[in-house]
Write a structure and sequence with these properties.
seven-stranded mixed β-sheet; Aspartate Aminotransferase, domain 1; four-stranded mixed β-sheet; globular
């Protein structure tokens, strides 16, 4: 049963960590700045180890991790079952290439198609690659249907689909596209949740609609109720493909194996990554039997995609996130977390504008930019990140306890309170 006790307002949190790195942390950070491309805005700590929802830096300081590798470490850091599966696989085989079969990959394909209701699986290494596969599949399928003029995808403002040229163009945020022009053609962006805008955008060149059930990087914005179902009907009406980006919402994050299942629809294809390997690099594109026929030998591939070690980890994950008891627990803890965060909003109404999310994916939108508060939370021992300039994002492991969620909100309240 859901835990219903009111969250304490006491601010019992660890003593603040130093805001500046020192010792081993600083040595490693100096090396990173000397040798690594400076394309990330990294927080100034060096994570050395993790267990469950806790991580430790190289100075031995402990942090409560409620971002989970950005919705990736779904079963917690160093989950014993994942560790055991990976260690066993490393002792047997860790790469063979996709010109041969391997048992872990075949088992994973069987599990994913069963969980999603789709028919075919393609494996890659990341969410961007999975979305690239969706885009290529849509264009190839339309050519195979005898409609080569249909090559455009309708995507949404404030969306995020990846960093490759095609996926960053599909992304509906100009800040990710600046400096990389000219961008590939064939993408239209419309307001998220606006069905009439989608309908107006459909034309003779439209091949597919690509949509996130919840816009993650865009601020943790859930789609309006019924929106995905309406998009399914619109696609059926016009002979279009419905492509769903489940990179951040898939693998149990919202209390179902995949977020589209909340609306009882069947998309033509979906992309999956992040939580699929509990942190090991693996992604997948799942599609219907009919669409799968368009990707014949030589049309698409991935050297490392679905390698035996990553697939072994993913098999543990999919076995867990299809367990009704775990999904129910995710849903209940998510409802608890949202309720407690909204209580915090009621105490800080001039700071917190809105709390929103589904399952264990939550955004806390502030009336001001969040970067200073993320730093303050880190100094107090809590790791979270931003989903846009004004929104704090929480995506904890499914194994997180209610006590840890309460601890995180106490730290957040202390960080927000002068």
């Amino acid at each position: 049963m859901p835990h219903t006790a009111t969250m304490t307002t006491k601010t019992e949190v660890p003593a603040p960590h130093s805001s500046a790195p020192s010792g081993h942390d600083q040595e490693w950070i100096d090396k990173a700045k000397a040798h690594m491309l400076q394309n990330y805005k990294q927080q100034p700590i060096v994570i050395e180890r993790g267990q469950g929802s806790r991580v430790w830096d190289s100075e031995g300081r402990s942090y409560l991790d409620l971002i989970g590798g950005i919705a990736t470490v779904a079963l917690g850091h160093c989950n014993p079952e994942v560790v055991a599966a990976v260690k066993a696989q490393v002792d047997k085989l860790w790469h063979v290439s996709n010109v041969f079969y391997s048992e872990p990959q075949i088992e994973l394909a069987e599990r994913l198609t069963a969980a999603s209701g789709l028919d075919r699986a393609f494996f890659c290494n990341s969410g961007a690659e999975a979305n690239e596969a969706l885009i290529k599949l849509a264009r190839k399928a339309m050519k195979d249907r005898g409609s080569p003029e249909r090559h455009e995808l309708i995507t949404f403002e404030n969306s995020f689909h990846g960093r490759t040229l095609a996926t960053v163009t599909a992304t509906g945020q100009a800040k990710y596209q600046q400096g990389f022009e000219p961008l590939p053609s064939g993408f239209l962006h419309v307001p998220y949740g606006d069905l009439e805008a989608v309908r107006r955008a459909v034309g003779p060149h439209t091949a597919a609609i690509l949509v996130e059930p919840i816009q993650g990087e865009g601020g943790v914005n859930p789609a309006p109720a019924g929106f995905l179902k309406a998009l399914r009907a619109l696609c059926d009406e016009h002979g279009l493909l419905l492509l769903i980006d489940e990179i951040q919402t898939g693998m149990g994050r919202t209390g179902k194996p995949f977020a589209f299942q909340h609306e009882g629809i069947r998309p033509d294809a979906i992309s999956v990554a992040k939580a699929l390997g509990n942190g090991l690099p693996i992604g997948a594109m799942l599609c219907t039997e009919e669409l799968g026929k368009s990707l014949t030998p030589g049309t698409h591939g991935s050297t490392f995609g679905g390698n035996p070690v990553a697939a072994a980890a993913a098999n543990v994950v999919i076995s867990k996130v299809t367990d009704p008891a775990l999904l129910r627990d995710v849903q209940e803890k998510g409802e608890y977390f949202l309720a407690r965060a909204r209580e915090l909003q009621s105490r800080l109404p001039t700071l917190i504008k809105e709390v929103r999310g589904s399952g264990l994916l939550m955004g806390v939108e502030l009336f001001q930019e969040v970067a200073p508060y993320i730093a303050k939370c880190r100094e107090l021992g809590l790791l979270i990140n931003a989903a846009g300039p004004m929104t704090l994002r929480f995506a904890p492991a499914y194994t997180v306890t209610r006590e840890e969620l309460d601890e995180g909100l106490r730290i957040l309240e202390r960080a927000l309170t002068p």
